[in-house]
Amino acid sequence: MAATTTSVISGYDRPTELKAFDQTKTGVKGLVDAGIRQIPRIFIHPPETSPKTSTIFEIPVVDLGSTDRASTVEKIRAASENLGFFQVVNHGIPVTVMDEMLQGVRRFHEQDVEVKKQFYTRDLSRTVVYNSNFDLHSSPAANWRDTFFSFMAPSPPPPEELPEVCRDIQIEYSNQVMKLGGLLFRLISEALGLNDNHLRDLDFDKGLSIAGHCYPACPQPDLTMGTTKHTDGGFLTVLLHDEIGGLQILHQNQWIDVPPIPGALVINIGDLLQARSFSLVLQILSNDKLRSVEHRVVANEKGPRVSVACFFGPSLAPSKKVLGPLPELVSDENPPRYRETTFHEYGQYSSSKALDGVPRLLHWRI
Asked: What's domain 14-363's superfamily in CATH?
């Protein structure tokens, strides 16, 4: 059933229920705080989209502190081409900073509801966008998740406009991730057989946004999802998640758990890097050399689960910079698989597309 359809037979007026939920401005956490025992119908997913079964598979762990650079590059190349995901340790971000960032996200979502409501909006031009489900009114079913979001680079917002309960750590953590991004893009450039500054010269490491997710404990986790199956837009995602876990990736038609490792960060290729080796921007640029892999977050009776996703990618600001397969990775034997687009067009499309299970890369596929 489409998200905008009203079912006369069942008496279920979905648009009205979505609007009522949105107008509370308290998100999923507000439902949990009210003591609900059954989740609202807007959150119920079709049975075929919500099975929680998974298989055991070892996610590659890359030691960025290794002195064997060639081995590090090869591990990243293999993981990016075959799985689209890997974890990094000895990445330079102190564990104390990571822990405080998770606590900052927790403080934001647990702060006084009247203070939190001041940030609730669906206007992406705002410095801080807090809401439940960015695609609430367009997705087939809502996810059991609340989020606050900010663009942190290349033009960081005035500190006083960020939430007081997590302001300092949000700035510090973003600065640390920017440094890590510079290193990762050098290593990925080498993995693609390019000069180590190639992707950085294309400004891949210049745009950063940060999302603080909260997945409250769910009374009926088998009926819904924390986050529906999707790929990430942009170039690269750096994920910090707590010990509860719940992240799964789709590999060879099987869901694989990504277990939290103390002190580690999860790295995955975005759509823009994919194009045969990395992800969507990387996937487009690499002409499918890199893999932008579908992943999801399952709902859980434990909670709240918190995570911090940092996305390297183009901003929503108008830009005429053209995005397409890198000439160095195209040949007669490996012709372009994606049409050219601009960063602005890509950003606009990605921000408007619901998590509906349809890969956004298909929009640019030749």
From this structure: B-lactam Antibiotic, Isopenicillin N Synthase; Chain (2.60.120.330)
Query: Three-state SS string across the chain, please?
Result: CCCCCCECCCCECHHHHHHHHHHHCCHHHHHHHCCCCCCCHHHCCCHHHCCCCCECCCCCEEECCCCCHHHHHHHHHHHHHHCCEEEEECCCCCHHHHHHHHHHHHHHHHCCHHHHHCCECCCCCCCCEEECCCCCCCCCCCCCCEEEEEEEECCCCCHHHCCCCCHHHHHHHHHHHHHHHHHHHHHHHHHCCCCCCHHHHCCCCCCEEEEEEEECCCCCHHHCEEEEEECCCCCEEEEEECCCCCEEEEECCEEEECCCCCCCEEEEECCEECEEECCHHHHHHCCCEECCCCEEEECCCCCCEEEEEEEECCCCCCCCCEECCCHHHCCCCCCCCECCEEHHHHHHHHHHCCCCCCCHHHHCEC
Structure tokens at 232: 């990430």
C-alpha span between 161 and 120 (Å, rounded): 14
Taking only Cα atoms into account, the Rg of the chain, rounded to an integer number of angstroms, comes to 20
Domain ranges of the chain: 14-363
How far apart CA 120 and CA 324 sit, in angstroms, is 35
How confident is the model at residue 283, as a pLDDT?
45
Question: Which residue numbers in the chain have pLDDT < 70?
Answer: 1-11, 48-53, 271-291, 314-366
Please state, in angstroms and rounded to a whole number, the distance separating the CA atoms of residues 281 and 290: 10
Sign for the CA dihedral angle at 170, 129, 241, 249 comes to negative
pTM of the model: 0.83
Of 287, 291, 280, which is closest to residue 235 (Cα–Cα)? Answer: 280
Q: How far apart are CA 333 and CA 340, in angstroms?
A: 19
In the prediction, which pLDDT does 203 show?
81
Smallest Cα–Cα separation from 323: which of 313, 310, 333, 309?
313
